[in-house]
Design goal:
The protein has a single domain, classed as NADP-dependent oxidoreductase domain (TIM Barrel). Helix 4 runs parallel beside helix 5. It is 38% helix and 15% strand. It is built from eleven helices and ten strands. The chain has 323 residues and is α/β, with parallel strands linked by helices.
Length: 323
């Protein structure tokens, strides 16, 4: 595994981190989830990305993660960097969603109970909710650090203006933003244009989710929607309407370049996100150990020639591809 320092901090993260957004919930095979997490840890992936609402059902990814750690990795907590988040819908009533101090603090407490951990290495505000003052949300994150419930804090999906304010408040409180998490892929480059440089200049690490565009950049959908895929699952986040002819045509063209590089399309798509020098790590979400192993091979070839970059940008320049 390759590691790199996270922004202006002493924390190193693996270039590939394991996300538990999918395939670790109560509807999934616990045995497969265990195999994937242990294989990731053995391969040097020490960063695990959770959120309170991951499942389905919400909360069950944290519960399963905690069970896997207790049963298999109990003596290895200090070798792991565990993240969780709060901000999306989680429990009934007006306090079970959003970015208020009440929701952030209660969510962290609940997440610690579900995972069985004493603290999180980093706890994020999962989103700017458009209502709660950024000052209130950041003060809640600072409170978690002061209470020892989190070692570091982060923000996820914050728009540029709120992103800048969050950095200033946290810096003034001497609890700088360790990580800024944004969606980024060859089909979704908005954050790369709008958020990355600000994070980099603030000294925040950048970690990217959905680097494979929910599977569209794996080649899986090049010949239709397979049974059991995310687009075919009722609980999946990829909608059938998003599997458009334009995206499939682009994925097929990109796959030609990947094959010329001796990579799978997924490996090339991951390598492209990691090729941005501002990016600390990319979160991968896998459904099998074989898929995980395929993703790990990405690190064998991260560089791109000028000609490869030119050809790739010609393919992904179509605005119809963007999410």
């Amino acid at each position: 595994m390759q590691y790199t320092y996270c922004g202006r901090s002493g924390i190193q993260l693996p270039r590939l981190s394991l996300g538990l957004w999918h395939n670790f919930g109560s509807v999934d095979d616990f045995g497969v989830a265990t195999q994937m997490l242990l294989r990731a840890f053995d391969a040097g992936i020490c960063h695990f990305d959770l959120a309170n609402n991951y499942g389905p059902e919400p909360g069950t990814a944290e519960e399963n993660f905690g069970r896997i750690v207790r049963e298999n990795l109990k003596g290895h907590r200090d070798e792991m960097f565990v993240a969780s988040k709060a901000g999306h819908d989680m429990w009934p009533g007006v306090y079970g969603t959003g970015s208020s101090r009440k929701n952030i603090i209660a969510s962290c407490d609940q997440s610690l109970r579900r995972t069985g951990l004493d603290y999180f290495d980093v706890f994020y505000s999962h989103r700017y909710d458009g209502v709660t003052p950024v000052e209130e949300t950041m003060e809640a994150l600072v409170q978690l650090v002061r209470q020892g419930k989190a070692l570091y804090v982060g923000i996820s999906k914050y728009p540029p203006e709120q992103q800048a304010l969050a950095y200033k408040i946290l810096q003034d409180a001497h609890v700088p933003c360790l990580l800024s998490q944004y969606r980024c892929s060859l089909f979704d480059r908005k954050a790369q244009r709008q958020n990355f440089q600000q994070a980099y200049e603030a000294g925040s690490g950048i970690i990217c989710f959905s680097p494979l565009a929910q599977g569209l950049l794996t080649g899986k959908y090049n010949n239709g929607i397979p049974e059991g895929s995310r687009a075919a699952r009722q609980s999946g986040f990829l909608q059938t309407s998003q599997v458009t002819p334009e995206r499939i045509a682009a994925a097929r063209k990109l796959q030609v370049i990947a094959e010329e590089r001796g990579q799978s399309l997924a490996q090339m798509a991951l390598a492209w996100v990691l090729s941005d020098p501002r990016v600390t790590s990319v979160i991968i979400g896998t459904s099998s150990v074989a898929q995980l192993d395929n993703n790990l091979q990405t690190l064998d070839r991260l560089g791109f020639s000028d000609d490869e970059r030119r050809r790739i940008y010609q393919i992904v320049a179509d605005p119809a591809l963007s999410f």
